[in-house]
Design goal:
It comes from Halogeometricum borinquense. The protein is α+β, with helices and mostly antiparallel strands and 159 residues long. The protein has helices at 35-42, 45-56, 65-79, 95-115, 134-137, and strands spanning 3-9, 17-23, 31-33, 63-64, 119-122, 127-130, 151-153, 156-158. The chain has five helices and eight strands. The chain has a three-stranded antiparallel beta sheet. The longest helix is centred in the middle third of the chain and has 21 residues, at 95-115. Residues 1-16 and 21-27 have low confidence and may be disordered.
Length: 159
C-alpha cells in the first residue's frame, strides 16, 4: 500500500501541522483525517457553512465562489457574526459583509479546506467542489444534533 501524507500548516499561533492521509492504491481511495484536524476545520462557522452547503448540493458541477459567498454572508448576518454594526435588521447582508465573507473564503477558509483534502478549490475559476473526505465530517454538520448524538454527562444531555 502506497499512502502519502499531506501536511498543511493550519495555525501559525499553535504551530500545528495537520496530517491527512490518502490511500490512492485501494479501490475505494480511502481518505482519513485525524479527530484533531476534523475539529480544527469545524471550529469556524464560515467553514462549517461552506461544508453544509456543499453537503446539501446535489449538483455535480463545481459551485461558484459567488454562490458560497452569498450563503456564508447570509449565515453570518443571520447569526449576527458578520461584523455589521449598522443596526440593519434586514435579511440580506450588505455589500461590505459580502466582501468580508468573500475575502475570508478566498484567502483563508477555502485554501485550508483544500489543504486538508476536504474540497477542491480552483482560485482561478473561483469554483469549489467537495471531495470524498467531506463525508467524514458530515455527522458534525447537522444544525441540531440528533438525541443519540448528544453528549451525555451523568445521565443529562449537554448542549
Amino acid at each position: 500500500m502506497d499512502a502519502r501524507d499531506v501536511f498543511a500548516d493550519d495555525s501559525v499561533a499553535d504551530g500545528h501541522t495537520a496530517t491527512t492521509s490518502y490511500d490512492g492504491d485501494s479501490a475505494g481511495g480511502d481518505a482519513r483525517i485525524s479527530r484533531d484536524d476534523a475539529f480544527r476545520l469545524l471550529q469556524n462557522e464560515r467553514r462549517r457553512a461552506v461544508l453544509r452547503f456543499l453537503r446539501a448540493e446535489e449538483n455535480s458541477d463545481p459551485t461558484p465562489l459567488s454562490t458560497l459567498t452569498s450563503f456564508v454572508a447570509t449565515v453570518a448576518h443571520r447569526d449576527g457574526s458578520d461584523g455589521d454594526n449598522s443596526g440593519d435588521s434586514g435579511d440580506t447582508p450588505d455589500a461590505e459583509a459580502q466582501d468580508r465573507a468573500r475575502v475570508s473564503l478566498h484567502h483563508s477558509h477555502l485554501p485550508m479546506l483544500e489543504e486538508y483534502g476536504v474540497v477542491k478549490y480552483d482560485s482561478e475559476d473561483e469554483t469549489v467542489e467537495p471531495k470524498p473526505l467531506l463525508a467524514a465530517l458530515t455527522p458534525f454538520l447537522a444544525d441540531e444534533p440528533a438525541p443519540e448524538e448528544m453528549l451525555v454527562v451523568e445521565g443529562e444531555a449537554v448542549e
